[in-house]
Design brief:
The chain is mostly helical. It has helices spanning 2-12, 16-28, 32-52, 56-59, 62-86, 94-99, 104-113, 116-123, 125-134, 138-165, 172-200.
């Protein structure tokens, strides 16, 4: 319950993953939320395994964190710019979108790893919760992880369901406006992460 609540509070906060889910939900519908979170969960399984086997110290290295931040910033900038460049070609035609659909699981992985806050969360709050669960055995770790992922799945499924059902009421102009806003937000995150983490991490 604790992991679910903490994870939900993090999921509700605006970020690259939420922006990607909103953007892709207008194109690929309700399946966006669950599949993006599947990708996110795959990455988090790797992180949990990494921490359990004692490799968290490697990620705490200042140089490693800086590399993660800069790489993530560049990925977000690339996604944001790609969204903006796609605006003249986008269509509300579902068949057209299906032909150009992206891999949602890969999107979940990419948007998660591109966010430096994700790594820092796991090295601070997540690490503390995981170590507490580890003292009670692997079943406790499983319960902790399940609660964590279920919070993300619940929230992003609601978001993708709402966006996909509202699609029929969205005009082509509004649709392009949504893509424009999502692109600008991702570029903004990219610039913010690139500047702040490069300066703050020594």
């Amino acid at each position: 319950m604790i992991s679910f609540t903490i994870a939900l509070s993090g999921a509700l906060a605006p970020g690259p993953l939420l922006t990607a889910v909103i953007y892709q939900s207008t194109k690929q519908g309700f399946k966006t939320g669950p599949l993006v979170i599947l990708g996110h969960a795959i990455l988090e399984v790797g992180m949990v395994t990494f921490i359990i086997f004692g490799f968290a110290y490697f990620l705490k290295n200042a140089l490693v964190l800086k590399i993660i931040a800069i790489t993530g910033a560049l990925i977000l900038l690339w996604f944001g710019i790609s969204m903006l460049l796609s605006i003249p070609r986008v269509s509300l035609d579902i068949k057209d979108d299906c032909k150009k659909s992206s891999n949602l699981i890969l999107t979940g992985i990419t948007m998660s790893v591109a966010n430096p806050y994700w790594t820092i969360w796991w090295l601070t709050i997540g690490l503390g919760l995981l170590l507490a669960a580890q003292r009670m055995g692997y079943v406790a770790i499983g319960i902790f992880f399940a609660g964590h992922i279920l919070a993300d799945l619940a929230w992003y499924s609601i978001v993708s369901f709402t966006i996909s059902k509202g699609r029929r009421f969205i005009s082509q102009k509004v649709y392009k406006g949504i893509i424009f806003v999502c692109g600008i937000i991702l570029i903004g995150f990219g610039v913010y992460f690139g500047i702040n983490f490069s300066v703050l991490i020594y």
